[in-house]
Specification:
With about 600 residues, this protein is of the alpha/beta class. The protein contains 14 helices and 25 strands. The strands form 6 sheets. A 7-stranded mixed β-sheet has the order 10-23-24-25-21-22-11, with helices on one face. Strands 19-16-17-18-12-15-20 form a 7-stranded mixed β-sheet, with no helix packed on it. It binds adenosine-5'-triphosphate and magnesium ion.
Length: about 600
């Protein structure tokens, strides 16, 4: 009986059970994978030993193709696969599914490693063995498997043209037609396959096909192609091969060699499952792989409103300069989300919250934003900033304090809702004769219900004094250039503390003397349509022209010490992050992650 560590997560209120957890629970109870070993694995000895030590643990994998940067949909798959392994005391492999030599690059490999680490996951065994694999490391084995299929009459070399093959495949209503090459003997096929391998045939001149059933109602079983000829340099194997395995053939083999127990993928692969099982059954018959086999399970991919998750389309946005790169803060890539200011905790919580089902649905983008607010609410230091600065002059300053240059020290809590017993950090700043306020906080003629600055009205400068507006200055065009006000002394003490003066509004501000100029990038959604590429829509016609607005702002002096990637709540405006790439001491750059509450729907 299995003694593997198994944290029973079904009791955990924050991790409700789902169909995959139920399957794993049942498999662990029945010992389904108890004999799963590294036998036949192409891994090194340490790898095999590590596997032998924990025979009953679940093994999942996250198998990206290194042909682009990972996006929020991949984050769901990562959190699912690594999360299940973590919760059940198992292991999750990171495997590069690099069977397609043309589109794959080292840059993407590195970015994927980074992204998975940053999200908070690791692929190490309990004994420290790193379970990081490349499908291309199994090319020798895959070729051997292909020859085995040929030798046993389970595969043949087809030399029909691509058009003939397509036509003869049939469709949903029409069975396929056998290829004239289907009856070749195993010996003929083997000779031909070796010619393919040895570069004797031109690209596309032949394919190796599994011999299953051209009349199968499942088109994926109508003799699927398993090897193709393609002269292309591979990022890992160089020019060793001119034939490459097809994904559908390679993937089950990768899973089997790595002794994956639960091979979790998105629903598009549901119809591939019969081939997955067929192939592993054939290879097990020839003792090429061990039983029990990995089992494939499918879940519904993440669809997130206002977001596209097609790598091809995301690459187009990058290549055409619509965004500044894969890590543009408007991109739904993991590097983009990171630069935007999303945290690993928020993304993990999001993936947990949306759950895993087999039902097709769209998740509201606000759910992701909500997870960020929940993560940062208690953590992000508060700060005051002025995004649309207008000068304020306190005209009685010199009279009250004896000098126009006098600065009054002020402070506010950095974490106003700090838990009991938690330190109450403070931010310090000064108020002087001049300050920056938001342009929208002054109205010469106040609209109905307006409570902020207008001549004759009193407001509090948050963390500072109560002031009374006395008027404004304008330029020749009539634009307000400065707001004038006086500090209101306390009615009882006569000093400027003014706590007994009741006002209806407090406004945010930044001192002119110690405020720091900063670039603030106000990001919004990249698309104006909630489902920008659904139903054949042209996503390029649905770009939000206001997805980025850059302003020169003033920020309180506590932000001068901000390090890249530090996150803050800018009072009244939302959550912001010091830009990962462009922020530097003396040249602050902040990105808006999200507002304080969901405002998109309004
Ligand atoms: P491609 O079209 O290049 O194959 P892909 O999005 O399928 O794009 P992969 O690198 O093959 O990219 O994906 C790695 C894993 O992430 C796969 O197991 C895939 O099922 C999963 N995945 C991809 N997109 C989503 C999504 N939107 N939601 C959940 N999982 C996803
Ligand atoms: Mg894919």
């Amino acid at each position: 009986m299995s003694t593997a560590v198994h944290n029973d997560t079904t009791q955990d209120p924050v991790k409700p059970s789902n169909f995959l957890r139920q399957i794993i629970d049942a498999d662990l109870a029945q010992g389904t994978h108890a004999h799963n070993r590294w036998a036949g694995s192409p891994g090194d000895a340490a790898h095999q030993a590590a596997g032998a030590l924990d025979p009953a643990r679940i093994r999942t994998r996250f198998p990206p193709e290194p042909n682009g940067y990972l996006h929020v949909g991949h984050a769901k798959s990562i959190c699912l696969n690594f999360g299940l392994a973590r919760d059940y005391g198992g292991v999750c492999h990171l495997r590069f599914d690099d069977t397609n030599p043309e589109k794959e690059e080292q840059e993407y490999v590195d970015a994927i490693v980074d992204a998975v680490h940053w999200l908070g996951f690791d692929w190490k065994d309990a004994d420290g063995h790193a379970n990081l694999y490349y499908a291309s490391n199994y090319f020798d084995f895959m070729y051997r498997a292909a020859e085995y299929l040929v030798e046993t009459g389970n595969a043949y070399v087809d030399e029909q043209s691509a058009e003939e093959m397509r036509a003869n495949r049939g469709d949903f209503g029409k069975p396929g037609v056998d290829s004239p090459y289907r009856t070749r003997t195993p010996a003929e096929n083997l000779a031909r396959l070796r010619e393919m391998r040895d570069g004797k045939l031109a690209d596309g001149a032949a394919v190796l096909r599994a011999k299953i059933d051209m009349a199968s109602p499942n088109i994926n079983l109508r003799d699927p192609a398993i090897y193709r000829i393609k002269r292309a340099e591979h990022h890992n194997t160089g020019d060793k091969w001119c034939i490459y395995p097809m994904y559908t053939f390679a993937h089950p083999i990768e899973d089997a060699l790595e002794c994956i127990t639960h091979s979790i993928c998105t629903l598009e692969f549901e119809d591939q499952r019969p081939f997955y099982d067929w192939l592993l059954d054939r290879l097990a018959e020839g003792d090429l792989i061990a039983r029990p086999h990995p089992r494939q399970y499918e879940f519904a991919r993440l669809n997130l409103t206002y977001v596209i998750t097609s790598k091809r389309k995301l690459k187009h946005l990058v290549d055409s300069g619509i965004v500044s790169g894969w890590d543009d803060p408007r991109m739904p890539t993991i590097v983009g989300l990171r630069r935007r200011g999303y945290t690993p905790a928020a993304i993990q919580a999001f993936c947990e919250r949306i759950g895993v089902t087999k039902d097709y649905s769209w998740i509201d983008y606000a759910t992701l934003e909500g997870c960020l607010r929940e993560d940062l609410e208690a953590k992000a230091h508060r700060a005051m900033v002025v995004l649309d600065p207008l000068k304020l002059e306190l005209t009685n300053w010199a009279e009250l304090f004896g000098s126009p240059d006098h600065l009054e020290p002020c402070s506010l809590p950095a974490l106003p809702h700090a838990a009991e017993g938690q330190a109450m950090p403070e931010r310090h700043f000064t108020l002087g004769r001049e300050a920056w306020i938001e342009r929208e906080d002054f109205a010469e003629v106040p609209p109905k219900g307006y409570k902020r600055l207008f001549p004759g009205n009193k407001v509090r400068l948050k963390g500072g004094y109560v002031i009374e507006c006395t008027g404004c200055e304008k330029d020749v065009a009539g634009n307000v250039t400065k707001v004038l006000a006086t500090v209101v002394p306390d009615t009882k003490s006569g000093t400027p503390g003014a706590d007994s003066v009741k006002v209806k509004a407090a406004i945010t501000w930044v001192g002119a003397a110690d405020g720091v100029q900063a670039e603030v990038r106000l990001y919004d959604r990249l698309f104006t349509d909630a489902q920008p590429d659904a139903g054949g829509k042209d996503y390029l016609a649905l770009l939000n022209p206001d997805s980025l607005k850059v302003v020169t702002a003033y920020v309180e002096p506590s932000l001068a010490a901000a390090q890249a990637e530090d996150k803050f709540q800018f009072e009244r405006f939302g959550y912001f992050v010091a830009d990962r790439k462009d922020h530097a001491p003396g040249k602050p750059v902040f990105n808006r992650v999200t507002g304080l509450k969901d405002s998109w729907g309004k």
